[in-house]
Specification:
The chain is an alpha/beta fold. It has one domain: Rossmann fold, CATH 3.40.50. It is built from six helices and eleven strands. The strands form three sheets. A seven-stranded mixed sheet has the order 5-4-3-6-7-8-11, sandwiched between helices. A two-stranded antiparallel ribbon has the order 1-2. Strands 9-10 form a two-stranded antiparallel ribbon. α1 crosses α2. The radius of gyration is 20 Å and the shape is globular. 19% of the residues are buried.
């Protein structure tokens, strides 16, 4: 294998930067997306993405896509096939975005913890993830060491075989792990 070098030493292969967007917000204008989220994120990461991967639905996808067009960043848009997949269409669309992206911007949802759990799974798999909270515009970069490993359910003995502890016992155990979790808040607007 040939090693490429220059005056300073061996050249390193640049890490690809494909930014996937999951989730959406509808309560703001374009300047909030650019000034409050995208500009600080790109300052943190230090470069523009090579490709932006967006869902077809959502106000945020339109605004972020328009921003990408200004900077000549290619975009790839995935549509959810609601006719074929029914209620699971969003899950299949988001799975395609996950497969192609190396970095993520995830908008959290107040009605469900699915996007929050997805962000934690992606961080554990080594991806770079930033989340935007639903109640404020606080952007948080998740760090792999700050997410505790998943805790499997604790087995208990019963007459019919093995089962798991009650949800109350599991929630007590998960509160202890939650206090160890530390997230880095980059900025809040």
């Amino acid at each position: 294998m040939t090693e490429f070098t220059d005056e300073t030493g061996p050249l390193e292969r640049a890490e690809p930067f494909f930014l996937g967007v999951i989730g959406s917000r509808t309560d703001v204008d374009a300047s909030k997306y650019v000034d409050g989220i995208l500009t600080p994120l790109l300052e943190e990461w230090g470069k523009l993405p090579e490709k932006l991967i967006l869902p077809a639905e959502g106000y945020s996808s339109i605004l972020i896509g328009a921003w990408a067009e200004q900077f000549n960043v290619p975009t790839q848009i995935y549509e959810a096939d609601w006719f074929r997949h029914k209620r699971r269409a969003k899950i299949f669309r988001d799975a395609r975005i996950q497969q192609e992206s190396t970095h993520f911007l995830i908008f959290l949802n107040k009605r469900s913890t699915f996007n929050e759990q997805l962000a934690e799974r992606l961080v554990r798999s080594g991806k770079s993830v930033c989340t935007v909270s639903y109640d404020s515009w606080e952007v948080t970069m998740l760090i792999p060491s700050s997410i505790p490993p998943s805790v499997p359910p604790i087995k208990r003995e019963s007459k019919r075989g093995t089962g798991t502890k009650s949800k109350l016992q599991q929630s007590t155990q998960s509160k202890d792990l939650g206090s160890q979790q530390q997230l880095t808040t980059l900025w809040a607007t």
